[in-house]
Amino acid sequence: MTDFAALLIADRGQQARTIHLVDKDSFAAWAKARSADDRALLAAHRFDGKTGYASVLLPRPGGAFEVVAAVANTAALSPWCLAKLGETVPEGTYRLANREPGKAALGWLLAQHRLDAYRAKKKDPEPGSRVLVTGKAAEIDPMVRLAEATALVRDLVDTPAGDLGPAELEAAVRAHAKNFGGEVRVTSGAELDKGYPLIAAVGAAASKERAPRLIEVEWGDPKHPRVAIVGKGVCFDSGGLDLKNSTGMRLMKKDMGGAAHALALAGLVAAERLAVRLHLLIPAVENAVSSAALRPGDIVRSRQGLFVEIDNTDAEGRLVLADAFARAGDGAGDKQGPALMIDFATLTGAARVALGPDLPALFANDDALLGELEAAAREVEDPLWRMPLWDGYDEMLKSDVADLANAASSPFAGCITAALFLKRFVPAGTAWAHLDTFAWRPNPKPGRPKGGDALGLRAVFALLQQRYPRR
């Protein structure tokens, strides 16, 4: 893991190169105050402050230099406006002129993170560290933790499925939980078969080494409000007997992206010491093909008690989440469910058809919760998009022989019917939000390489900070 703490440090008056930030409105006045040599160099580079991420090095005596960079709005820096600089400026220490980086420090940090475990030859030349100083020392640790959480999601999602099955995901959870003092419980084998039949059924076709399990972590004061965070942990999804084609299967190492988000969020909650009793639940399975595979038409009794007919074996994520939801409801040892439950899942292609890769589809059974999540998403610039839990589509989940089917009888509204299926298993009286996230960036942007990515993580963490501040 990148040492982010070494890349964002307190400003103690140390020597540092200056970065000037300009935008299309402020550039002319800023340039007017520069030397004739600076203006000539800027003109030679056709730098006008309008082109996003553009920058120019301004030479100074003795081999020193300053940097001028264009951003969209100097009055409101985004998390990513310094990311290109974090990728491209020469190694060394830098300071923004007349301002603090604020949320823009996140992009600076993440621009310097990459997964190199699968490269026999590292990129040449190996870049040195680009260090940013800030006068707000109290903001360093929280920003570093956000960068670490985002990098954790990216690295887990980018890891090949052959190296990250249910057992390896369990090991990752144990290692992370050890860092924040969480209590780990894993249910597998005969106990899983008996207590979590949907999780067991989805994972039944996998090899013994990749056997299904439910991974749980508890942390915090039992007297505090109980908050359940659930992450879909399908470590590879072949589609089961309703087999995906090669294109559909190509990125299915990322089908545990919900689990990666949930684990990273749990670490943030614990590090911030939020006033919650945290319950992390990750149903970890591989949806494989064998003679033991779940079949279309099979009926499985869920932990909650509802009988589910399997209409499509490729709609497996909602099945494992259903049993995890039921466990969240009885996790407190009484009939009262958690005060809040939030799940992350790479659940449906329909959400991506509707919203594309950048926008997690947000569903919730509580309007106040929806409003708070949307406000938090805007504040931290981690977008979410509200979608309806339209009860009129619930009839699409009807089964002729069971309580409900796991997939809709219609090709329409796929992400909505998936959310409606999950809603059936939400503990009574629990406020619930569901994020149908992609966990993947198909096209690179500064600070955000192609591959696994955290989408919705910062928004949900901001909500929890507001609802349950540390005590």
Question: Can you lay out the helices and strands and say which pair or pack?
Answer:
Blueprint: E1 8-10, E2 17-22, H1 27-32, H2 36-44, E3 55-59, E4 65-70, H3 83-88, E5 92-96, H4 105-110, E6 130-134, H5 140-158, H6 166-180, E7 183-188, H7 189-195, H8 197-202, E8 213-219, E9 226-231, E10 233-237, H9 246-249, H10 257-271, E11 277-287, E12 299-301, E13 307-309, H11 317-330, E14 340-345, H12 349-355, E15 361-364, H13 367-380, E16 385-386, E17 404-405, H14 414-423, E18 431-436, E19 440-441, E20 451-452, H15 457-467
Parallel strand pairs: 1-6, 2-4, 2-5, 5-6, 9-11, 9-14, 10-11, 13-17, 14-18, 15-16
Antiparallel strand pairs: 3-4, 7-8, 8-11, 12-13, 15-18, 19-20
Helix pairs in contact: 5-10, 6-10, 10-15, 11-14, 13-15
In short:
The protein is of the alpha/beta class. It contains 15 helices and 20 strands.
What can you tell me about this protein's structure?
- With about 475 residues, the chain is of the alpha/beta class.
- About 30% of the residues lie in helices and about 20% in strands.
- The chain has 15 helices and 20 strands.
- It has helices at about 25-30, 35-45, 85-90, 105-110, 140-160, 165-180, 190-195, 195-200, 245-250, 255-270, 315-330, 350-355, 365-380, 415-425, 455-465; strands at about 10, 15-20, 55-60, 65-70, 90-95, 130-135, 185-190, 215-220, 225-230, 235, 275-285, 300, 305-310, 340-345, 360-365, 385, 405, 430-435, 440, 450.
- Strands 7, 8, 9, 10, 11, 14, 15, 16 and 18 form a nine-stranded mixed sheet that branches. The protein has a six-stranded mixed sheet with strand order 1-6-5-2-4-3. Strands 12-13-17 form a three-stranded mixed sheet.
- Strand 15 (about 360-365), helix 13 and strand 16 (about 385) form a beta-alpha-beta unit.
- The mean pLDDT is about 95.
